[in-house]
Design goal:
It is a single chain. The chain is mainly alpha-helical. The chain has one domain. The protein has 6 helices and no strands.
């Protein structure tokens, strides 16, 4: 079963990355164009987001009807529903990083295949930020 789960994960990642490439979302200029609502606005990302929300909604509705996942023993549904300061701070930092760079984590990892230096720098900074978050989270536990 672990080999089948790994194969499903790799296939899912390839499908996701291929979809991002096909939709043009690996190009940070396209993302910044979407965020530039007062200038040369590019609505392409809105269609990609609408497709993603639709697919996610349908997938979640289907999953909620299943007794258990196909390749796991149980579903890992989120248990926290509270909107707290760390969530807000994280969302703000994500938005600032996305707006400045034009990348969010998924497209950035997919764009690594092109080997462009700005993408490598972004992913390195992202990994450094994740490591710093881990250190700070252990040092300053939030209640």
């Amino acid at each position: 079963m672990p080999a089948l789960r790994l194969a499903a994960a790799v296939l899912s990642g390839l499908l996701f990355g291929g979809g991002l490439a096909l939709s043009g979302m690996l190009d940070p200029a396209r993302v910044r164009g979407f965020l530039d609502v007062t200038g040369a606005w590019d609505p392409t990302l809105a269609f990609v987001l609408a497709g993603a929300v639709t697919a996610s909604g349908l997938g979640t509705a289907l999953a909620r009807r299943l007794h258990r996942p196909v390749l796991a023993e149980r579903f890992d549904w989120p248990t926290r529903t509270r909107i707290d300061p760390p969530l807000i701070l994280g969302a703000v930092l994500f938005g600032i990083g996305w707006g400045l760079s034009g990348f969010c984590p998924g497209p950035a990892v997919a764009a690594l295949s092109g080997g462009a230096l700005p993408v490598v720098v972004f992913v390195a900074a992202m990994l450094a930020g994740m490591a710093a978050h881990g250190v700070l989270r252990r040092a300053l536990p939030v209640r």
